[in-house]
Amino acid sequence: MNDAGQLVFGVYPGTVKVITSPGSYHDGKPHHVAATLSPAGMKLYVDGQLAAQDPSVTTAETGSGFWRTGYDNLAGWGPNEPSTYAFTGTMRFAAAYSTALTPPR
Hints:
Blueprint: E1 8-11, E2 17-20, E3 33-38, E4 41-46, E5 49-54
Antiparallel strand pairs: 1-2, 3-4, 4-5
InterPro entries: ConA-like_dom_sf
Protein name: LamG domain-containing protein
Organism: Pseudarthrobacter psychrotolerans
């Protein structure tokens, strides 16, 4: 989430690729957020609705490492870089799947 409350999903397929929700979700309400990357492109869903997409981005850099949720170094990840790299909201759970789920799932 950037300082304006917009949700951001980014991948690195050789260069930074980011999609951002048009609306703000810094409203104190719970939201379900899902991001997918597949041959259909990168997509960001909020509360079951498609909020942002880029069909031209279908892959990301692969490598070994660790998943991080709620914090990472976001330097260089676009013009809407947040002032803090730590998510300051509440997160109930996080999940990662090897394939993109369909919107109903």
